[in-house]
TrEMBL record:
<protein>
    <submittedName>
        <fullName>Syringafactin efflux protein SyfC</fullName>
    </submittedName>
</protein>
<dbReference type="GO" id="GO:1990281">
    <property type="term" value="C:efflux pump complex"/>
</dbReference>
<dbReference type="GO" id="GO:0015562">
    <property type="term" value="F:efflux transmembrane transporter activity"/>
</dbReference>
<feature type="signal peptide">
    <location>
        <begin position="1"/>
        <end position="19"/>
    </location>
</feature>
<keyword id="KW-0732">Signal</keyword>
Length: 77
C-alpha cells in the first residue's frame, strides 16, 4: 500500500514537471481600442422620486436686492 502511494505521488510529480517543461507558453492577448477625444455625457434617463436624506435651510448673511444678474437662463456658471 505504501509503495503504491509513493509511486502515484512520484508519477503525479513527474507529470507536472513534464507538463511545465513541454507546454508551450502562450503569449497574452490584449484587447485594445483606438484613442479618440470626445465629450462625456453624464445623464440618467429614468423616472422616479428623489428625496434627500436631510433637509437644511440655506440663507445669506446679508440682506439687500440684486440690481443685475450677469447670467442668463441656461448659461453654464
Amino acid at each position: 500500500m505504501r509503495k503504491a502511494g509513493w509511486g502515484g505521488a512520484l508519477l503525479a510529480v513527474a507529470c507536472a514537471v513534464f507538463y511545465a517543461v513541454e507546454a508551450p507558453a502562450r503569449a497574452p492577448v490584449y484587447i485594445t481600442a483606438q484613442v479618440e477625444r470626445s465629450d462625456i455625457e453624464n445623464a440618467v434617463l429614468a423616472t422616479g422620486v428623489l428625496e434627500g436624506i436631510k433637509q437644511v435651510d440655506v440663507g445669506a448673511q446679508v440682506s439687500g436686492q440684486l440690481k443685475s444678474l450677469k447670467v442668463k437662463l441656461g448659461d453654464k456658471v
